[in-house]
Amino acid sequence: MGHLKLEILCLVVGSVVALLALNIDSALANTGSNADEEGGPVFVKEPPSKVDFSNSTGAEIPCQSRGTPQPEIIWLRGDGTAVGDVPGLRQVLASGALVFPPFRAEDYRQEVHSATYICLARNSIGTIHSRDVHVRAVVTQVYDTHGDQEYIIKGNSATIRCKIPSFIADYLDVVSWHDSDGNVYKLDNRGVFEDGKFVVLPSGELHIKDVRPEDGFKEYRCQTKHRLTGETRLSASAGKLVITDPQGSTAPRLSGDTQISGFARMGMKGSTFGLICPSQSFPPGIFKWYKFTDGSSRQPVQLDDRLKQLGGTLIIREAKVEDSGKYLCVVSNSVGEESVETVLTVTAPLAATVEPAVQTVDFGRPATFTCHYQGSPVKNITWMKNGKRLPQTEAVIRIDAVRREDRGMFQCFVRNDQDSAQSTAELKLGGRFDPPRLTFKFREEVLQPGPKVSLKCKATGNPSPEIVWELDSKKVTNADRVQVGQFVGENGEVVSHVNITNVHSNDGGVYRCTAISKVGSATHTGRLNIHGLPHVKSMDKAQVVAGSGMVKTCPVAGYPIDAVIWEKDNRVLPINRRQSVFPNGTLVIDNVQRNMDQGTYTCVARNAQGYTSRGNLEVQVMVPPRLVQFSFGDQPLEAGTHVSLQCSVDQGDLPMSISWSFHGVELSSQMGIETTRLGKRANILTIESIAPFHVGNYSCLASNLAGSANHTAELIVKVPPRWIVEPTDRAFAQGSDAKIECKSDGFPKPSVAWKKAAGDGPMDYRDLKGSAPGMRVEDGNLVISAIPKQAEGYYLCEANNGIGAGLSAVIYISVQAPPQFEIKFRNQTARKGEPAVLQCEAKGEKPIGILWSRDGKRLDPKPDPRYTIREEILSNGVLSDLSVKRSERTDSALFTCVATNAFGSDETSLNLIVQEPPEVPFGLKVLDKSGRSVQLQWSESFSGNSPITRFYIEYKMSKSDWNSGKDRVLVPGSQTMASVYNLRPATTYHLRLVAENEVGTSEASQSVTIITAEEAPSGPPTGIAVEPVDQHTLKVTWKPPLREEWNGDIMGYYVGYKLASSDKPYLFETVEFSREVGKEHHLMISNLKTYTEYSVVVQAFNRIGPGPMSKEVAQHTAEGKPDHAPQDISCTTLTSQSIRVSWTSPPLASANGVIKGYKVIFGPASSWYDEKTKEIKATPSSEIILHGLKKYTNYNMTILAYTNGGDGIPSTAVSCHTEQDVPGPPTAVKASVMSGDAILLSWQPPSQPNGVVTQYTVYQRTVEPKESEATSQKIPSFQTTYEISGLKRKERYEFWVTAHTAIGEGQPSKSATTSPSNKVPAKIASFAEKIVATHRDEVKLPCQAVGVPAPEIKWKVKGQMLTQSNRLRVLPDGSLLIKEVTRKDAGDYACKAENSNGHDTIMHTLVVQAPPQPPSISLAGATGTAITVRLKSPSDSAPLHGLTIHYKQDFGEWEATQIPPNMSEYTLEGLNCGTRYQIYATSYNSIGTGEASDILNTRTKGQKPGVPSAHKFIEVSQNSVTLHLSSWDDGGCPMLYFVVEYKARHQSDGWTMVSNSVKPSGNYVVLDLSPATWYQLRVTAHNNVGFTQAEFEFATLTLNGNQVGPARTNDNGRGLLLEVFPWLPEWVDYNMIVAGCAMIVIIVVGLAVICIAVSRRNRGPESFRLRDEGLYAQPDMRGMTLKREFRDELGYIAPPNRKLPPVPGSNYSTCDRHKKGMNHPTWNGRRPAAATGVPHTYEELANGGGGIYYDDHPPVPPHAHSDDSSLYSKPPNGVPGQDEEICPYATFHLLGFREEMDPSKGSNGLTLPHGSTTLPPPGHGHHRGGSQSAPRGSNTTRYGRGPVGSGVVSSVAGGGTVGPNGIINPPNHVFSPEYDDPANIEDEYGYNSPNRRGSLGRRSMGSMRTVPIPESPSPPPPPPRPSDSPNSTPSHSQMNQSNDSKESNELSEAECDRDPLIRNRNSVSGGAPGNMSTEEMRRLIENRNQNEAHSIPNGLTPYDTVNV
């Protein structure tokens, strides 16, 4: 039961597989139906067959294909395996390219870099392969070439070779030879090879003709070029000629090997070859070249332009394949002959083409592909289908009946050893292919015997299939109980069924229904199981061919079946590995063998109850025949010879039939061919006499029951040509089709060629090309379509096949023709004004008549004499000429020429076109332009009857002229639009247009003018140089780029720098462009590392952007001092006076330069503090020996390294002690008599002990009455006295002393002589000396005395007798002991010893050393970063070792520095700018450090940065703004950095940070801005003192570079008020509020003014009363055009009836000036400063000039600041005294205020007292721009009223007082003038700015005004310009800019107006005369300015401004 289930499962699986196969076939059929829409892959870019590359360059091999769908690209190796990526060595790109990157030599892999690759392209249609791609990577290796040495006999030709290593020889070409005389001989690439003495052959050898002895003195070097890398190099060694003189006659002898030039170039067709015949002899031989033909015969080589002979070398240019062959060189002279053979092989590139490329064939139809190939040699031909190899090797592949599986891609490959080629073709299936498909299948069933069974299958297909039924592989036919039926349903389905009635168990088995048609089949298999006992059905005998496989399924019926087995020879199978038995009863035997597998097989079926059934199967194994290969031989056979061929069968079963066929047809005896049977296995074919018709393929077919075998041999017979149809003379009517047969036969088949005689006779035959139209050769026949007359002549037909002389026949073809014109119509042109001749030549049979007509009317030349007709009879026709004199435009017409003869007529037409130059083009306009091109369009004018061939666009720069400076652009005549390129950006051009035809050119059109757009600079700056300035600074200098590379106006430069060793990006600084021609730009790059190499680049930028960067320039900064001291210092004592010192260099990184050497500073340690005791020695090495040192002295020494930048840091001192030496003599010796026989000898130690004194030696001897030998006595070192006794009184003794060290005895002291005596006066043995004691120590002053009687010791201290105390007392030995020595103890101490016999005195000097006294310190000077102090050290007993300066800044830590003791001034550097410091000093010596000096409080100079004027700081363009950072005032302290932010003007959110670390040098550019947009800019400048923040407003330019006007708002001030009063509700009418407030203010002010005026008129002092109304009366009121509303808005209250004269030198615009073009900007007083936050009281309004406004107003024009006298020396109209008309919004000073303050109007001119001491000191006044302002307290009232708080008030001349803060108050504490200064109207007009400094914001001059002088109506003098004042600073010129600054020191315009008042207050002592004019006043001011250097006491100078 289990087996049965397994069988059922197998059947089900089989059914499913069949169904899937059916579906797949259906899908393929559908695909085939859409084949026209799809396409197989075809290579678009096929990789080359050979790819060589260098490992340094790499290679990329492309592979691209097309197809539908898009093919997939896969790379394969030569063995067919896929190629993958190898990292770093091989990569397949997505584009299909195979890439080999550059690689190192050690990474070479042979399987990657020397392999064959194939590119495969595939899609659903098929697969194709590329040609073989041979890849070879060449690893760069070191190589040398060498010139060869050639031995040659004089007079012969020599050939010097260039020896190239074999591993590189394939890639090197010899390009030239160089001799030692400098001559260069190059390879002649043209192949001309002139016959000179020196010629470079194609293979690279140097050929030297007719060698002479002088040629042996030269050296010859070859120059090679690497084909892959392009590298060229000369040979390492030179070649030479060794020339020998001939020694008698010599026969020719060959030397060396013959070489073939060009073989290294792959021997390709078209190359140049040189065949060398290296021979020498004497006399020189004669060379002859031969070529072998037909293998044995030789022919001399015919020399021509292509084949030349150069000496013994044969040169073959443009080699052909036919040049291949064997060549023989024969050289001979009178002595003998020699020859050599050379084989030349010329290859041609292979190419293949398959035809047809695409072939669509219906099912079952034949298909043929033919492979046409070219090139030589061709080694083999192979075919592939869909990437798989086919067995065909012929050029033609045939498919007899196309089946579905034949669809796909076919490829033909041709190959040789060096090359390969392929071609692709596609086979598509035609028609509608619909293979059979089963739509219904029967099911497997299990039944009981008896019932009826019906099995049914349905199938569809086109054509309709037939359904066949099988049971157990046997066809089911109709029987008694079985019926098979089939019919076609309505829908075209084929329905078939098997009906079984009364089913039996034997009816069970495997049923199969198969639907079959010619396009395919479909099968279904199922099992029908009928219950019953097992039954094995009978099986037919099976015949199996040996070597094949056998599959047999046992036909078993019954159900259920438990097992089915097979047996053979009673053995259950399988019994070997070739046999397999499956559970369903299938037996499979592979590779059937007769001796093992033939026999009887038994199938046994068994059920579970043990019932079995058996059935036998007879298997017969048959062997098919096998033929022995045969052929007719390799060479063609000659006709008439005998040939026989045997066909033998060496294997196969009998009986066997053997037959012969010729071209597939059985042989016939009529052909003269006999076949003879030899036994049962052979047959012989015999041809007695070979004839041409025997040529062909002979096939032998052997067959038996097992199969058949055939073999074919081709018989080739050489047959000379013979005529089949020989051509004869023929005659044809003109225009008919002519055909002349010329047929021949022969083998090989003769080629037939036709030629035509060039002349009239039968000679000089030439090819038919160009002889006549329609003439061609078809299958040997000459065919002439519509034979023309010129086809008449002699013809030659030749037939040749290379055998024999060939055939030829000459015929004559005649053509009988009517008159005929070769050209039926033609156009003829004539130039206007010139003659024209019209010709018509009629050919045909004569006579021929000619008639002319014009525009269809017969032409009669008689009426018009300009026309003339003449005729000329020709041999083959008539020539007629129609002449026209002086052609006119009206002569343009159609002329017809009609020719007539007996055979007919013909005509031709001539269209005469009178031509002239074209007219001027018009409508030239510009369509588009850019920086380098312009597009033009124009309208075409009249062409002059000649097509305009071209237009010339002529253009030039505006500065050039049309004659010499123009350029041209050619435009085809068919275009009316063109572009001109290669223009320069930002350049003005003139363009015009000229038209040209064949006749001439037109006049030039009107020119158009353009200006090209700007572009970024295209070139880098030039002349870049970098020089070190100091250790931290480099100076970069450069010049602008070439002018033609600017592409606009250069705005500046970016200078980038970085460490040369760094890969980080450059740091850029911006430098402004200098307009001076030829000026070098420069930049100081600071804060760099010492002695470090930096790379610097410079790039220019303009409004568009930056240009290219320059090349890097590397430079080191200057050398600095080493940062570290030398290391590892050691010293070694050599002798008592020399020490060796050694050290190692400081770290290289700290050298800061190149260490030039070292300095050794040394000196005794005891006086190390004293610089005078130190010595310095320099040495370049790291060791030195110090000589000449003091003996036995401890030395300190330090070492420092020095560079060109200076001395480095000294090392820590090390100490070394010199060795001991013999001591010097004791300093002094005393001999003191003690008694009559004793003497006390005393001495002082040596001043130069030179070591440790170990002992003394005392010498004595007698000198009187006679000398004696000296005796000595050793004394310990601690003892300096010695008592000598036993002496004699009457003798005189001499004593001396020596000292000893470990080295030995020193020099003797001076001798002392004396004699003993009984009278012993007092004598002091001690020595007077200078004793140095330390503060608070104990000291003993010695005084040892002798004498008899004992002397009395007395001491004097500083001349006074000693009074002993506990601290000072005399010891028993006479010494004086002083305890706790103080400074007061220092001085002279005298010791006196006295007795009755005499006295003695010594004087000691006591020096007390103590810590030094405090030094004094004072300020000597200060800068921004340094403070210089002056030091004075008090004198002291102890040597001063040095001073220590202590300093710190406020809230900082103390720092200290030590300086030498002799330095009187010292500068503390590196301090913070503008910072307060505390400084004190201390002194120190060997005792210690003394007390500190007083603390010095001071500060460095400097203040916070100052804000520049906007127009100097900001420069705008369309998309950027340039910030000139150098315009900021650094306040005396270096700028640290800037913070730059910006936002759009109406932007509500925060600021955009551009950078918070902008370097302060150069310019800075803010990019990416929008054109024509208002922006707010906030810049914060930082220095050491602090920061200053300023805000600016600016507008970018428009895209056209224009400027925009100020932005205006339409909210009527609503937004402004909301900023100030955000709490106001929305419903408030702001207009009403403003109007109401203004009205209230006006009323209040008006009442106040009236009250004050009345009170002053009546009660006030005269000087403060209102002026007389008559003072303001003027004779002319015409100029008063200033409207009231403008005056009110400006805050101006004009005096009654008073016109305002102009103020010279001010920002003043009048109507007259506006009319004259002298427009000045106008200050806007209508915008409340308090509401906007703008600090200044005025804004600028647009003056109509389209300026750029910063902070809503334009900058003041430069001429507004000038003091040119022409502006105010007389009125603008030239009439003195005539007033100018003041225009609205014109700029003017509010003179209504100034005149009332004019000191020239006052009596006695009230001035400040110069001697007053109540004013603040000058150092505390505010100075800025030449003005001084005294600080004012915040508690003062307006208009100088008294202070609110208490304070001291001082008197001021004129009645004023000065408060404690220096504020000058008026005498009555009320304001005097009725018209106040605009600077003090904050409260009334809203000008109070919260950002103004208190010392500047409110400055009133009311308290200093004087009584005006009625006689002087003149205006005050102009204020002097800042440049004229010695106290001026650059910031003064920036005072009238409206920059919002947190620390602004700027002055308002009103404040500037006040300057002249104060200046005159300080300089004018009396009133100005009433008749002084403005000019006189100006001159007075100029004279005063010359004396400004003399400052007035109290810190005020003339024309200073004071805040009061």
Biggest β-sheet description: 5 strands, mixed
Q: What structural class results from the helix and strand content?
A: mainly beta
What's the alpha carbon Rg, rounded to whole Å?
64 Å
Low-confidence stretches: 1-36, 258-266, 1663-1974, 1984-2004
The number of distinct helices, counting runs of at least 4 residues, comes to 14
The 3D shape can be described as elongated
Helix content: under 10%
Distance between the termini: 131 Å
Beta content: 35-45%
Roughly what is the average pLDDT, rounded to an integer? Answer: 79
What is the strand tally? 147
List keywords for this structure.
147 strands; 2004 residues; mainly beta; 5-stranded mixed beta sheet; disordered N terminus; disordered C terminus
Overview of this protein structure:
There is one protein chain. By secondary structure, the chain is mainly beta. It contains 14 helices and 147 strands. Strands 2, 5, 8, 9 and 10 form a 5-stranded mixed β-sheet that branches. Strands 32-38-37-34-35 form a 5-stranded mixed β-sheet, with no helix packed on it. The chain starts with a helix and ends in an 18-residue tail after the last helix. The model is unreliable at 1-36, 258-266, 1663-1974 and 1984-2004 (pLDDT under 50).
Describe how the helices and strands are arranged:
Elements: H1 2-33, E1 39-45, E2 50-54, E3 59-61, E4 64-68, E5 72-77, E6 91-92, E7 98-100, H2 110-113, E8 114-122, E9 127-129, E10 133-138, E11 146-147, E12 149-153, E13 158-160, E14 162-163, E15 172-179, E16 184-186, E17 198-200, E18 206-208, E19 220-226, E20 232-234, E21 240-244, E22 250-254, E23 273-275, E24 279-282, E25 286-293, E26 297-300, E27 307-310, E28 313-316, E29 325-332, E30 337-344, E31 348-355, E32 358-362, E33 367-376, E34 380-385, E35 388-390, E36 396-399, E37 408-415, E38 420-430, E39 434-440, E40 445-447, E41 453-462, E42 466-471, E43 474-475, E44 482-488, E45 494-500, E46 509-517, E47 520-530, E48 532-536, E49 542-545, E50 550-553, E51 556-559, E52 563-568, E53 571-572, E54 579-581, E55 586-589, H3 594-597, E56 599-606, E57 612-622, E58 626-627, E59 637-638, E60 643-651, E61 657-662, E62 665-666, E63 673-678, E64 682-687, E65 696-704, E66 707-715, E67 717-725, E68 730-733, E69 738-740, E70 743-747, E71 751-757, E72 765-767, E73 775-778, E74 781-784, E75 793-800, E76 807-816, E77 820-821, ...
